[in-house]
Specification:
The protein is 33% helix and 21% strand. The protein has 387 residues and is α/β, with parallel strands linked by helices. A 7-stranded parallel beta sheet has the order 8-7-6-9-10-11-12, sandwiched between helices. A 5-stranded parallel beta sheet has the order 2-1-3-4-5. Helix 3 (83-98) packs across helix 6. 38% of the residues are buried.
Length: 387
């Protein structure tokens, strides 16, 4: 019996994917797996029983990835599961920036008791006139699951789309419209585009990427949209750009005291993935990842360990070893099995920076002494036998 714990409410359609081999526990110390959305985990202590954490969403800033890796806890996320929900809100953000719909609505509410409201509106509406998106240049920074959807949708709106992503995956490239211009540098995109939207993860080299220098390269009256991570944009630089008129509008899904209330800022309370469909997709995907790892040892969409998949476990036992990526590790692991006259029927090894993962199928039951010998090897972090 596997036990799981939910740190946040998880959509029921996902929880229902757990079968009779699983039971929910209210105590995280008893859990083999944890499901989480936004709850902070950096101050938590994890017991030796915990094997995996699944984030029902893409961002994992709330999870201590290095700490989990060192303790042999695989952390999953659900890339692409909420992509359509975010894409639609990005498009809404562009429309709100192009047409002063918010200002117009506010004006109507302020004059709702005017007996001749329709006539007054005809006179007032020129103050809220805007522009159309068709024919404007859109720059998309990051062509992952969300960026590709935004770029393709913008093409259908008649926009001239520029994409920049030096690490674009083969899968994303296949899904990208042929009408999208591939910018060779992000500076090219800054200089050319009327609208710029960011869709990259928060990494050391992306944090604060939209700063004073980047903004100085942009067109006057540019519109910047940030539905990725708040730390990608330097708030002080953006406030200065809004006040000076360099940036016409900043649309962000991340409210902060510095940005809220600044003229030209449209601040949304982190609604990007807040749709029923997104939450259900993320829940289903997170549960599927956990089940495949717990029952078969397969790793898909981990953010701290390499992807590794040997399919469904068949007869015999499957040994999974989370370890440091160091020389002669495979030799030491197989030597232990040879000492015990255990025949290997299938094996896979994958690495990701300083961490690695090895899966070994054997035809017989695995004695406890083998687990102990494997765990004793320097650099091995966690050994698990799936029977």
């Amino acid at each position: 019996m596997y036990r799981y714990h939910c740190l946040n409410p998880i959509a029921q359609v996902g929880i229902e994917k757990f079968d009779e081999k699983y039971a929910k526990t209210e105590k995280i110390d008893e859990a083999d797996a944890v499901l989480v959305r936004s709850a902070g985990m950096h101050e938590m202590e994890f017991g030796g029983k915990l094997k995996a954490i699944a984030r029902a969403g893409a961002g994992v800033n709330n999870i201590p990835l290095d700490k989990c890796a060192e303790q042999g806890i695989v952390v999953f996320n659900t890339p692409g599961a909420n992509a359509n929900g975010v894409k639609e809100l990005v498009l809404a953000g562009m429309f709100l920036a192009a047409r002063d719909v918010i200002g117009g609505i506010n004006w109507v509410q302020e004059h709702e008791e005017d007996g001749d409201l329709a006539k007054a509106a005809e006179k007032a509406k020129k103050a809220f006139a805007g522009t159309e998106l068709e024919g404007k240049k859109l720059g998309v920074i990051g062509l992952g699951a969300i960026g590709v959807l935004v770029a393709n949708a913008a093409v259908h709106l008649g926009m001239d789309v520029y994409g920049y992503d030096p690490y674009v995956s083969v899968d994303a490239a296949w899904r990208l419209s042929r009408n999208i211009h591939h910018a060779k540098t992000v500076d090219e995109l800054y200089k050319e585009c009327d609208y710029i939207t960011i869709h990259v993860p928060a990494l050391p080299d992306t944090k604060g990427m939209i700063n004073k220098d980047a903004i100085s390269l942009m067109k006057k009256n540019v519109v910047v949209l940030n539905f990725a991570r708040d730390v990608l944009v330097e708030n002080e630089a953006m406030v200065d750009a809004l006040v000076s008129g360099k940036v016409k509008c900043y649309v962000t899904d991340f409210p902060t005291p510095e940005i809220a209330g600044v003229k030209g800022a449209i601040v949304i309370p982190h609604l990007g993935a807040s749709t029923e469909e997104s939450e259900e997709n993320c829940a289903r995907m997170a549960v599927k990842e956990l089940k495949d790892y717990l029952e078969n040892g397969n790793i898909r969409n981990s953010v701290n360990y390499p992807a590794c998949d040997m399919g469904a476990k068949e007869e015999g036992s499957r040994i999974t070893i989370l370890h440091k990526n160091i020389p002669n590790m495979i030799g030491q692991l197989t030597a232990v099995l040879a000492q015990e006259n255990m025949n290997i029927s299938l094996m896979a090894n994958k690495s990701r920076k300083e961490y690695a993962y090895t899966m070994i199928d054997v035809e017989a039951d695995v004695p406890e002494v083998v687990e102990e010998k494997l765990e004793a090897i320097e650099g091995v972090l966690k050994v698990r036998v799936i029977k």
